[in-house]
Structures
1.
Amino acid sequence: MKKYIKKPLLTFWIIISISFLTDAQTHKFSNYTVKDGLSQSNGLCFFQDSESFLWVGTQKGLNKFDKKTGKFIIVEHLAENSLINNNSVYTIIL
């Protein structure tokens, strides 16, 4: 009878130990808004390039985030005679 109890109990402790090990990682998240220089608080698409710049597309344009300075740079829209008539960025293609 003890053999039947030990095996499930051991299995239970192994599973619990593994779950604690995998959950030990911590992730840091930051929330950026218009106050931080973002053109709009709702990002529609995101891309991180090889130089570690984070590009954020919004309905008000394209934003580039520099981790070193912690600031956003709003990429100016195209010339007035452009075929594109709004600043919405829904997709960033490499």
2.
Amino acid sequence: MDQESKQIISVRKWLITAEEYLKDSKNLLDFHLKANRSTITRPTVLLFAYFLENLLKGYILVKKNLTQLDKKYQIHLKKELFEKAELHFSKENHQDIVEFLNHVTNWGKYPFDKSNSQGNVITSKKETKLTAYQNETFVFSSFENFQELLSFAIHFLELISNEMINEKKLHTAVGIKETLGRLNHKLIEMEKAIKGDVTQKNHQSFSNTFSNIKEKIKNRIHSFKSTHCKGLGIRSYENKI
């Protein structure tokens, strides 16, 4: 088997493994959304980090023209791995996100602030706070945080896919382009699911608030009628709100 064939097989293995991790992360995300949970558990984020790690390592094989990864590349997701892949962070919060995922994969805990029990805050470009909590047994992430991770992954997958597909030896290789396409489709599905859930919750919150206001007004009208109209011969009208 020639070097080119060996490389294609190795790249395909890393991408297939990345897809398996993303599929499992998506299954957990779907469960959290259907269960109407307010947070995402650590395994959801951990599997997502492994997906990115395997995707990146598959890309490094192509970038460095390797058939297998050297020892220096056999590390968990971290800033150095992106540097070895010659990928650069285009947004301010990208480096924070990678550091966040590195803590998850290495220690099973999110960044920890010793002054209190709340994890360090990752700040997006819009300066919206992304909360990360840690305790002794379970680690949770907010949906807003996970949505930021998805946007980050979609951005880098686009960069990686364009370069890999344009690589002459991979352009016609069976399974490479198709797998990258499925990864992109799954990420977009996950992003839409979270955005839709947040929109629905906001709508429900508004509807519930409006219903509460209506109920309070009705109660006040009933109270007024009982107190001031009873026995006075005043004709009262039913108010429909």
3.
Amino acid sequence: MNPKQTLKNMANTIKMAKKPDKDEYQQHLRLVLLGIGGVGA
């Protein structure tokens, strides 16, 4: 996973935050955070 893709995912997460479906957003956020954790490890 490259940093550029991670930033793109974060941007998508922020866009999703504006949508009413909060459960989907939280699930996506968790995946993004796991991705960041994987990169940081």
4.
Amino acid sequence: CEPPVNPELDEAALEDGEHSGGRHLPQHLERQLRRRGVAQLPQKRPVTLPELIEQLQLMKAAMEQTVAPRRRPNSKMRSQAAQAIFELAHQENLVETASELDRLLAERGSEIDEGWLDLEQLLELWHHKHLDSSVDPEIPVSTGEVHLPNHDRVGVFWALLLLSAQSKVELLQEEFYQDLKIRAL
């Protein structure tokens, strides 16, 4: 073997060979590489009939494990909810409450500032009206903050909705979760 003529060129060639993984790369690599339009399709092998049957049986078993909800309880729940609403409306005497509320608004219409009344003010008037009608004259009435039972508030609100549907009152709420204002029409 003859020693190389230019040892520096040989070292440079060896370094290039090390960086390229020991293979010699073409000089104009960008001309050699071509971009594909789409990715290569994966190689497919034919599926045998036993494999197909086995896969279908696995899918069937998985579907049987997840039981579909039955429709019957849903219809039962609907009928129970409808019955509860009917009973609640009947217990609240919605029509009677609405007519009493309409009379109260007509009686106190002159006392309402600028025609609008807050829901809390209406509930206070409602509470005082019921106290006046059901109070024993010998028992003193406390004059303090009014605490209505929750069903009274709901009943009055339902009655207001009924009166609004009958175009007897106008309900106004400037923003969500703000005070409700009522005006008799």
